[in-house]
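Final paragraph of the annual report: two paired records, presented back to back.
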Amino acid sequence: MSQFVLTPAAEGDIREILDYIERDNPSAVNRVSEGLRDAMRLLAERPGIGHTRADLAREPVRFWPVFSYLVIYRPETKPLEVVRVLRGKRDVRRLLEE
């Protein structure tokens, strides 16, 4: 079983995403939550499948889309470290620099 860990920022991102979805569309919360977890498990098994975005991140992270969100992770870490989970329409570069 491949493993992953969430940074405190990623935990907060997921909490915010699910809270927002629950207010807008409660029936979608489980689907989105499971979709994110399934993607993180896949990335832990195959960390090279994500893509790099030098225009968005200075550090060596990879990106993987899930619905309208980006799972941002460090592929070389064991267990896989999920750095952030952000909506793709947000200012991802600015949020990663914070």
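The closing record of the year follows.
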Amino acid sequence: MTRRNLVVDVGLALLVLGSSLAMLAMGGFGDARPQARALDSIGVVLAMASALPLVGWRIAPLTAYTVMAGASLLLDGLGYPFDVPFGPVVGVYALGVAYGGDPRPGRRWLAMLAVAVLVPATAAAYAASGHNIGEIVPELLLWCLVLAGVWVAGDRTRLRRNQIGELEERARRTEREAERERRLAAAEERIRIARELHDSAGHAINVILVQAGAARLLHERDHHGSQQAIATIEGVARDTIGEMDRLVHALREDDGSEPPAPADPTGLEELVQRHRADGLSITADLRGQRIALPRSVAWAAYRILQEALTNAARHGGGSADVVVWFKPAAVEITVSNPTDAIPSPARGHGILGMRERAALLGGSLESGVRDGVFRLSARLPYGDS
């Protein structure tokens, strides 16, 4: 029972009460019956009992219906012109919503029985008030059809609500699965980065070890050479610290399933040539000066280009356009290829992993399909910036 539902139910109960009181005050619908009882305090109380229980139908629908139906029968039995039992009719709809698909057969059949006895009980109440039952037989048959239709309408509402709930749950499940795939792709990429960081740190430590030994041996007889070795140690240590500042938060265990990517920018050209040899038609444009990139940036550029060309070979039309631009503060990679399919996490985690790798380096990666062409663009900054 939410606040919104409570406001709706209170409004509905007041509407039904107002309609019932107006009908009783006018003497019923159609021609007024001379023997009909005029509205008095007892009629007002019974009219309230036939309408106000709608406020709690979501909590106890069968109880609310029973109270309203009983009040309606009393109004008929006491001779009030209660031609249309608004409250019980709405209560039948509530029973259809609540018990139409109840997995407990006892509850469902009890609700259906409560609806079925309303018409014969109304006929008995009319007879008790002195009316001739034969005169209202057509009306009773009509009310049988009306109540059956109201029950079916309530049951259909229940089915529609269930379908909407299932669709919403399916959408939430799909969203959770997509988020899980994204996290898995990020974790896999961080594992790969951790191995590359290990290689970079191991290389730097070896250089530092060699230069430290040289500085120790040259300290007495070649002071200048000793100073150069110490300067080399300082430079390598500074570069290594920079690399670790970039990637240390991505450390994960490595499964060793894939060989390390080349750290030399020329590895990009070799990668293009390798895919050409595999049958992919590639138009390549490598711009700018081939400067020595930080290992993390060089590895990321290699992995991103590798993933883009792999997607072009798997999902494309057999060709790809590659532009690699070595700018003073960043390297930019753009790969375009015709395609009929969009690489998705369901086929692999490549693009998600590359986006994670670019983000770890402070860069960005965008991908998408437009006019039948899949385009991947990445920017990897380096240097002091």
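Strands lie at 281-287, 319-326, 330-338, 364-370, 373-381. This concludes the annual technical report; the extension proposal builds directly on these records.
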